[in-house]
Amino acid sequence: MSLARYKQKRNFKDTPEPEGKVTKAKNKLTFVVQRHHASHLHYDFRLELNGTLKSWAVPKGPSLNPTDKRLAMMVEDHPISYASFEGDIPEGNYGAGHVDVWDHGTYEPVDEKGKVITAAAFTKALKAGSIKFAMKGRKLKGEFALVKLKSDEKSWLLIKHRDKYATDDEYTAEDFARKSSLAYTAKRLAAKKAPLKKATAKKAAPKKTAAKKAAVKKKPTKRVTT
Question: pTM value?
Answer without folding.
Answer: 0.83
